[in-house]
């Protein structure tokens, strides 16, 4: 079973038949009328058995499936696309699949969870023999060896949601000469339970031409640990105080099995950097509050979901662009909403305005398109519309390569609100409500910003190369660089 958006669930039987259900009540009840078609399954397709495809996932009527290659000497790599035209009204209108179902929209996908801690060995070994063990640790490299600690209970302090957990420090990790990048402390307890504490190692001095900014303020806004975050229901006309001193409940470092626009989404970008030998230095949002380092880089790369920005952060990037810097925006929903964060005031971020309403930059006369060249449109959220490469632009060309040809790609969409001399490199065709573009633009300074207008997701479909600080309650450190 998979799905869930709009109350719609898809279920696949053992022989590959797919069925449609829709829960209408939305309140946990199961009274008459709570389910479409009285809760009875509606048959919508065949051939979706585990011998043919796996890793099915669906949003807004779109179903993706990674198909198993029938040639056992070749890898599983094809991503196929299907869409129900009337996914919310199948019970009333019947099953209406649009033309082109089963189209190949991507390659390079796998049915195997890669970059995880996994391994294998011989099924038996003779007494006195040697056991060969093959282990794959997800590309991680250990930067601090495991240490064992006795666990203890740390009680929450009054007002922890706003002021932080205020727990006592149990140990200190010497940084040493670790490479700049994304790292985690890996906590491993009894029965194999693992949790991760993410952090960034920034360079003492800029070393590379590329600076990568990880959107910690956004990840913190979506962190639901303790049941309190930016999206918690609250009808008070007041600002929301969200602490930065608490565990991350959304720090997925291993493949979570669903679309993740948090840390795992960022790891997909890091994986792409690693695969393409892109050297970079790593920072997180609030490092822009002291931006002296920024002007020393040729380009600043914004990661998967850079939604929340303080005025200091935005001013730093605008000044960097005005001075000839470059920005590459690889995600979506970027620079969407303002927050305030002053470290000297306390370990918290202030969300929303004084009336308790969303504090969008565009409502303050500073739309994100002025910096990024594109803007997010909430009406296209999770639409999964395909896009087409359609521009002859030097950005697509490497030395000795041919220019890009028009080709369909899977993707999500947002409406671009382009400014200045913006040119679309990639577009979403014939979308009923909005459009999406990968754009490049230049201004008076000799610079270029490359921006992707989409709902938040990563740049690569493959899993990341990682490294850790391991801590089997135990603790240790890994670096993602």
Automatic annotation (TrEMBL):
Read off the InterPro entries from this record.
Class_I_gatase-like, DMFA2_C
Q: Where is the composition biased (Polar residues)?
A: 402-415
- Give the N,N-dimethylformamidase beta subunit-like C-terminal domain ranges: 139-401
Output this protein's name.
N,N-dimethylformamidase beta subunit-like C-terminal domain-containing protein
Q: Where is this region: Disordered?
A: 395-429
Annotated source species: Lentzea atacamensis
């Amino acid at each position: 079973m998979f799905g869930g958006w709009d109350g719609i669930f898809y279920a696949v039987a053992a022989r590959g038949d797919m069925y449609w259900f829709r829960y209408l009540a939305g309140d946990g009840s199961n009274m008459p009328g709570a389910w479409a078609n009285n809760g009875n399954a509606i048959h919508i397709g065949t051939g979706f058995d585990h011998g043919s495809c796996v890793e099915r996932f669906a949003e807004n009527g779109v179903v993706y499936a990674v198909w198993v290659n029938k040639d056992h000497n070749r890898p599983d790599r094809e991503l196929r696309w299907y869409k129900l035209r009337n996914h919310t009204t199948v019970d009333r209108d019947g099953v209406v699949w649009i033309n082109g179902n089963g189209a190949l929209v991507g390659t390079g996908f796998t049915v195997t969870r890669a970059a995880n801690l996994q391994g294998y060995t011989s099924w038996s070994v003779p007494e006195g023999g040697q056991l060969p063990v093959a282990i794959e640790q997800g590309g991680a490299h250990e930067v601090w060896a495991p240490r064992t600690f006795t666990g203890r209970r740390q009680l929450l302090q009054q007002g922890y949601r706003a002021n932080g957990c205020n727990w006592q420090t149990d140990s200190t990790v010497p940084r040493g000469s670790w490479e700049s990048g994304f790292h985690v402390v890996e906590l491993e307890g009894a029965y194999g339970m693992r949790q991760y504490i993410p952090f960034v190692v920034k360079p003492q001095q800029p070393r590379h031409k590329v600076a990568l900014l990880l959107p910690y303020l956004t990840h913190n806004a979506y962190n639901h640990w303790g049941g309190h975050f930016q999206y918690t229901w609250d009808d008070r006309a007041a600002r929301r105080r969200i602490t930065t001193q608490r565990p991350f409940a959304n720090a997925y470092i291993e493949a979570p099995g669903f679309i993740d626009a948090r840390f795992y989404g960022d790891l997909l970008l890091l994986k792409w950097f690693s695969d393409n030998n892109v050297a970079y230095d790593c920072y997180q949002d609030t490092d822009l509050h002291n931006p002296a380092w920024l002007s020393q880089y040729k380009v600043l790369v914004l990661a998967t979901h850079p939604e929340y920005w303080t005025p200091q952060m935005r001013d730093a990037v605008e000044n960097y662009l005005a001075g000839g810097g470059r920005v590459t925006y690889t995600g979506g929903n970027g620079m969407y909403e303002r927050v305030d964060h002053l470290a000297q005031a306390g370990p918290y971020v202030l969300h929303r305005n004084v009336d308790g309403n969303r504090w969008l930059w565009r409502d303050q006369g500073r739309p994100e398109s002025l910096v990024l060249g594109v803007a997010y449109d909430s009406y296209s959220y999770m639409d999964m519309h395909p896009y087409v490469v359609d521009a002859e632009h030097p950005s697509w060309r490497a030395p000795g390569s041919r220019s890009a040809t028009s080709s369909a790609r899977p993707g999500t969409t947002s409406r671009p609100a382009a400014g200045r001399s913006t040119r679309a490199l990639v577009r979403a065709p014939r979308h009923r409500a909005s459009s999406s573009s990968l754009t490049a633009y230049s201004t008076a300074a000799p610079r270029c910003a490359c921006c992707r207008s989409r709902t938040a997701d990563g740049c690569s479909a493959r899993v990341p190369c990682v490294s850790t600080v391991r801590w089997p309650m135990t603790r240790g450190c890994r670096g993602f660089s």
